[in-house]
Amino acid sequence: MATIEKGGSRWLIAAMGTVLMLCLGTVYAWSFFQGLLVREMHSVYGWSNAQVAWIFSLAILFLGATAAWAGAQLPRRNPRTVAMMGGALFAVGYGVAAAAFALKSLLLLYVGYGVIGGIGLGLAYVTPVATVSKWFPDRKGLSTGMVVMGFGLGALFMSKVLAPVLLSWTGKDLVSVFLLLGGIFLVLGLVSAWFMKNPPAGWQPKATVRAAAKGSCAEDSPDLTVWRSVFSGRFALMWLVFFFNITAGISIISFQSPLFQDLWKRVSPDLAPAVLAGLGATLVAVSSLFNGAGRFLWGTVSDRIGRAQTFRVMLVLTGNPWVFAVLVCWVLLCYGGGFGTMPSFICDVFGTRLMSGVYGAVLTAWAVAGVVGPQIFAAFQDRLPPADASRWSFLVAGAFAVVGLVLSFLLSNKPMVLAGGKATVKAAPPAAKPAAAPARRARLAAKATTTPGKGSAKTGRKP
After folding, report:
1. Could you tell me which residues are beta bridge partners of residue 203?
2. Which residues are CB-neighbours of 232 under 8 A, at least 6 positions away?
3. What is the tens place of the pLDDT at every residue in 259-305?
4. Which of 17, 45, 139, 183 would you call most buried, defined as having the most Cβ atoms within 10 angstroms of its Cβ?
């Protein structure tokens, strides 16, 4: 069996995957720019909440759709090539967005940041998740949770570091800001993507045997295909639970900054726009910590208690906060956990061989949720007073969480196999009779050789 040393440093690959995800996750800070465009710069561009929200929705829509295609292609393509292509397109999206701001063209912004950037997101997102899971068959939840944690922390990186510094330096010139962001992400994205590679054939980490009872993926069913898996009832249920979990969280992500600013403006009408923007950025930053921590935390927890059980716990927590900021943090803690748990869940149910294809397909739930959730919130923002918009937004998010919770009780951790031409749940193996402990076996053997009347060595008598 090959060793870790012959396969390369898997922790370095995981770390570089996290860096790549950190760049991609800056898309989650879009609410920072949402408030800037609709409020401070409304006289310049004249765009509504719904119009600006479509930029983010398109980016997530094309992320999910492209990830489904990329996941099916990864088994046949070099992950480094796919990741570097995604990183480059993501950076190009920022460049086209800069041109859109210069021309004041909403359509070009849709094409640049939404379509081109979204395609780059999809290519680059699925690659490190699928690749790192192959390097960590013994720690699936922890490793994939670590990688997607980077995506969750991207909003912190953008809202408290990159965006404020660049906006201050350029005098809030969005053309220059987006050009500089594109250059930064091009360098970081290409460098980190270069480290993406699959382990050698037959490679296994030393810890796999020790952790096999809890940490390894399901055995691959040779006749089970991605197509049959995706059209199975098990996959449909996983897709729905993922969709409701994502919708509950992504709705908050897309509008948390302007909603928070509206509430502060209602409480303190004299607050300056710069102060309100700072408060919104702070909430984005703090909630992104919970989003990132949730991906790592719940991914690790799922290794202990099971994937289906983890989804149930997360969806229960999503509906129980009391105040706005705490609610946002709790929602995103559990929202991020869905992304930390789902890669391992796919691996448990469908096996390592089909992981990238099936995981890419389940990310289409993200694509649909990225349109549904933000557009509902945008409608509330454009049509209701701030207090009512905030209240109704969280009621809708809570409703999505409750539906997801109900469906999660139908989920199962059991692997899928092909039986009679149909994908079905693999039957549990018969329970093996527990072997006697070594010390007990030694005592029994010693007793058998010293008991009189049993042909023992001590008496020499035959039975």
Report:
1. 2
2. 416, 423
3. 666 666 766 777 777 777 777 767 666 766 666 666 666 556 666 66
4. 17
Question: Is 435 domain-assigned?
Answer: no
Could you tell me the residue range of the domain that residue 138 belongs to?
9-200+214-425
pLDDT digits (tens, 9 = 90+) for 137-183: 777 667 777 787 888 788 788 888 899 899 999 998 999 999 999 99
Structure tokens at 171: 């005098």
Please name the residues in contact with 70: beta carbons below 8 A apart, sequence gap of 6 or more. Answer: 82, 86, 122, 123, 126, 127, 360
Structure tokens, 131: 């690749």
The answer to whether residue 445 sits within a structural domain is no
Q: Identify whether 74 is part of a domain.
A: yes
Helix (H), strand (E) at residue 425: strand 422-425
CA 413/CA 407 separation, integer angstroms = 14
452 CB-contact burial (10 Å; exposed 0-12 / middle 13-18 / buried 19+)? exposed
CA distance 282 to 269: 19
User: What CATH number does the domain containing 286 carry?
Assistant: 1.20.1250.20
